[in-house]
Amino acid sequence: MLVRHHWNKPDIADRIDAAVHATLSKGDYTADILGANGMSTREFADLICEQLS
C-alpha cells in the first residue's frame, strides 16, 4: 500500500504483488500462517526478492 498509494508507484506495486502471489502459489508460507512447517519472514522475503530479480 505504501508503494502504490503514498509513493504513487502502481507499476512497482503490481510487480511486488505478482511476486508475492507467485511465491504463495508455490506453497511457500511463513510460520505465522502455516505453523511449524512454515519458513521465517526473512526466508519468505528472500523468495519474493528472487521473483523480482
Can you offer a commentary on this structure?
α2 (10-25) crosses α4 (41-52). The model has no long low-confidence stretch (mean pLDDT 95). It is elongated and about 35 Å long. The chain has helices spanning 2-6, 10-25, 31-34, 41-52. It is 70% helix and 0% strand. The two termini are 21 Å apart. The chain has one domain (2-52). With 53 residues, the chain is mostly helical. It contains four helices and no strands.
Shape: elongated
Question: Which value, in Å, is the CA radius of gyration?
Answer: 12 Å
Helix content: 55-70%
| Element pattern in H and E | HHHH
Give the uncertain stretches in residue-range form.
Answer: none
Number of DSSP strand runs: 0
SS-derived structural category: mainly alpha
Give the count of helical stretches.
4
**What oligomerization state is this entry in?**
single chain
The separation of the N and C termini measures 21 Å
The tally of structural domains comes to: 1
What do the pLDDT scores average to? 95
How much beta, percentage-wise? under 5%
Largest sheet: none
In short:
This protein has 53 residues and is mostly helical.
Using brief descriptors, characterize the structure shown.
single chain, elongated, 53 residues
Question: Would you spell out the secondary-structure blueprint of this structure?
Answer:
Layout: H1 2-6, H2 10-25, H3 31-34, H4 41-52
Helix pairs in contact: 2-4
